[in-house]
Design brief:
The chain has 204 residues and is of the alpha/beta class.
Length: 204
């Protein structure tokens, strides 16, 4: 695919990492990204609420073992999806959230632009593993790779990417986490310990 826009650059990076399915709810700030999904013939599954998009990506990741990807508008869209991101963080499941940003001239001005959230990037960084903004289309493939690296390495957890509308033609933010080796066994051990504690308390 010839890359000519930020949205296409982002999708090129996703395809390079084996992504072929995206869950999403399109909006003004991410139309360019959804156009790129269509041009690349990616499978896009829609929903009527951003939280549903996030949880579908979460379920996809849990059931397939592959990173789940979803895309929502910035501001309220990201906040609506926050529950799914935090669930992914707690369960260490790989989930990528692609979002947008207000136009560059309005960024950080606090003028109440559509879907504006004061310092969205800083907000995302409070509940994901890593967050950054794509400043230019040429940087998109490298930063998509960095996002995958961050979410799948070390203690795996959510990461976030954001871009500046008007320069990359579509927003991007991603969140991901993945189960640690042995997590299921440790969870079973904790549940057994809890049961033992309850029995001891009843005996006393």
């Amino acid at each position: 695919m010839t890359v000519s826009s930020g949205g296409e650059a982002i999708v090129s990076g996703l395809i390079a990492h084996g992504v072929d399915t995206v869950f999403g709810l399109p909006g003004a700030q991410i139309y360019g990204l959804f156009d790129a999904f269509q041009q690349a013939q990616m499978k896009v599954i829609g929903a009527r609420h951003e939280q549903a998009c996030g949880y579908m990506a979460y379920g996809y990741a849990r059931s397939t073992g592959r990173p789940g990807v979803f895309s929502v508008v910035p501001g309220p869209g990201v906040l609506n999806a926050g529950a799914a991101l935090l669930t992914a963080f707690g369960a260490n499941v790989p989930v990528l959230c692609l979002t947008g940003q207000v136009p560059v001239p309005f960024l950080g001005k606090g003028r109440g632009h559509l879907h504006e959230m004061p310092d969205q990037l800083a907000t995302l960084r409070t509940f994901v593993k890593w967050a950054e903004r794509i400043e230019y289309p040429d940087a998109a493939p490298t930063l998509v790779s960095r996002a995958f690296q961050e979410m799948l390495s070390g203690r795996r957890g959510p990461v976030a990417r954001g871009d500046r509308r008007g320069k990359t033609a579509g927003g991007f933010s991603c969140a991901a986490a993945r189960s640690r080796a042995g997590q299921g066994r440790r969870r079973a051990d904790r549940e057994q310990q809890d049961a033992d504690d309850i029995r001891r308390q009843r005996c006393n």
